[in-house]
Amino acid sequence: MNLFAGFHDISFWQLIPVAGVALVASVVGGVSGYGTGALMPLVLVPLVGAEPVVPIIAISAMFTNSSRVFAFLKYVDWRRTAIVLVMAVPTCVLGAWGYTRLSSAGAALVIGGMLILSVPLRRLLKYHGVKVGDVGLALGSFGYGVVVGGTAGSGVILLSLLMAAGVEGAGVIATDAAISIVVGIVKISVFGIAGVITAQVIAFALLTGLVALPGAFLAKTFVERMPVHVHTAILDVVVLLGGIFLVWGAVH
After folding, report:
1. CA atoms of 8 and 16, how far apart (whole Å)
2. DSSP letter (8 states) at residue 4
3. pLDDT tens digits, residue range 92-130?
4. What's the CA gap between 62 and 178, in Å, rounded?
5. 12-32 helix and 199-212 helix, angle to the nearest 10 degrees
6. How far apart, in Å, do the first and last CA atoms of the chain sit?
7. What are the tens digits of pLDDT across the range 186-201?
8. Angle CA(50)–CA(40)–CA(175) in degrees, nearest 5?
9. Model pTM score
């Protein structure tokens, strides 16, 4: 497989904004736990079309999430990581397989709407002292698996689940990354079996993944100096923006 063939008909100057957005998205993701799945399609779709975007992001995310786990290792909540993975991995296989067969526009519309509502709902539950326990986290993870398997930018769902389960601050970033590595391996395996991982997919994934590696360590300096309530507020804003982005993408 000739990886350089993956950049066929794409100039060096067109690759510069892709690399730039990949680095910015990595820093944003390192601070908020979310960003790559929402930002990268903005520069990838005009160049390669919509079909290869989810496989590209799945592979490149292995780089960013690995560096994120390494940078935030001491903050990972391994117990909740296990709960999420036990429930999400089987349904992730289903979601990834469905992506190779169906459009995700309708699902993105529903997901985006739910995400927009999730912030005021989470704050209302917190105001009344209601939290999601292990059972609620497990049930939510079952649905999250289907969504993350077949869409890009759905990481905000996992953030919402972890925050509702009581994970805070850097723990959200670290636990999200640890879960996403395993989910990513599952998605890549399904995409590989389905034959949608081409030279173009691998080439763009390597470009964006390698450029984004320093982002987690740049973000760590921001997170460790940030109060928990400020970090939580940033995550809420990102969840809202992520939901709006998904709805906008589905409608247009």
Report:
1. 15
2. G
3. 999 889 877 755 566 566 566 766 776 786 677 566 666
4. 10
5. 60
6. 35
7. 999 999 998 888 888 8
8. 115
9. 0.77
SS3 164: helix
Spell out where 112-163 has E strands: none
CB 57 within 8 A of CB 152: yes
Report the distance separating Cα 14 and Cα 88, nearest Å: 36
Please tell me which of 57-66, 212-221, 234-243 the model is most confident about, judged by mean pLDDT. 57-66
- Burial of 7-22, coded b for 16+ CB within 10 Å and e otherwise, reads beeeeeeebeebeebb
Quote the pLDDT of residue 39. 72
Q: Which two tokens stand for residue 140?
A: 């939510």
Sign of CA dihedral 30, 38, 189, 95: positive
The DSSP secondary-structure symbol of 252 reads: -
CB atoms within 10 A of CB 60: 28
Which positions ≥6 away from 178 have C-beta within 8 Å?
A: 65, 69, 76, 78, 81
Nearest by Cα to 33 from 172, 138, 139: 172
The total of other beta-carbon atoms located within 10 Å of residue 241's CB is 17
Q: What is the DSSP string of 33-101?
A: S--HHHHHHHHHHHHH-STTHHHHHHHHHHHHHHHHHHHTGGG--HHHHHHHHHHHHHHHHHHHHHHTT
Q: For residue 17, what are its two tokens?
A: 């904004």
CA dist 131 and 136 (Å) reads 9
Q: How confident is the model at residue 77 (pLDDT cuts 50, 70, 90)?
A: very high
Contact 108, 246 (CB under 8 A): yes
Residue 94 corresponds to which amino acid? L
